[in-house]
Amino acid sequence: MSSEVAAAAAGTGSSQEDPVANISLDSITEGKNDRGIPATKFLDDIDLFANSFNPPASSELLIGAYSDLYSKFKAYEQQLEQKKGTYTEKLPEIEKSITLVRHLKEKKESGVSGVITRYNLADTIYSKAEVDCSQGIVNLWLGANVMLEYTYDEALELLTSKQTVAKKDYKEVCRLLLV
After folding, report:
1. Are 174 and 105 in contact (CB under 8 A)?
2. Residue 133 · residue 115 · CB < 8 Å
3. Which of 41, 52, 64, 123 has its CA 20 to 30 A from that of 19?
């Protein structure tokens, strides 16, 4: 935004210029939705809208105000895209964990004491390990370098509740992105 448009948007002008209309976000929007996102007014007649301000708004001032609003919408869209990406990665991990805990629980119930598995050390490096199923305990990473021990039933309850919330939030983000 140029310094003249910025000064005009702030409602100040140089002493040589005519007074400039003061355009606020409320004057170019119509309320907000439940998420606090402003709804943009539809303008049938731009001249009528510009002349509704005292003094009338210049085209540069209107363009600047709508450009600012557009930037805010784009920033919000970017946040939603990031959230969508996070859920796209998070949901398969939760589902994989649920499948693993169910598998361990089935092995314990069938009387198998140990299961040989491969676990991920790094992106492409795996190692074999024998997992003791007889105790009915699993450790889950919760984030922020925190790992807690759960029984299989507790772990399944926690993971399914996280999955339910993540699916609900993912659907909401997709709805807001109109995907």
Report:
1. no
2. yes
3. 41
Residue identified by tokens 């895209």 is: 81
- What's the whole-model pTM score? 0.68
Cβ atoms of 140 and 160 closer than 8 Å:
no
Q: Write the pLDDT tens digit of every residue in 31-74.
A: 887 777 778 888 888 888 888 888 888 888 888 888 988 998 89
* Location of structure tokens 């003791």: 132
Q: Token pair for residue 73? A: 């919408």
Alpha carbons 115 and 131: distance in angstroms, whole number: 5
Instruction: Report the DSSP pairing between strands 137-143 and 126-132.
Output: unpaired
> Where does residue 98 rank: exposed (0-12), middle (13-18), buried (19+ CB within 10 A)?
middle
Q: Which tokens hold the place of 12? A: 């100040």
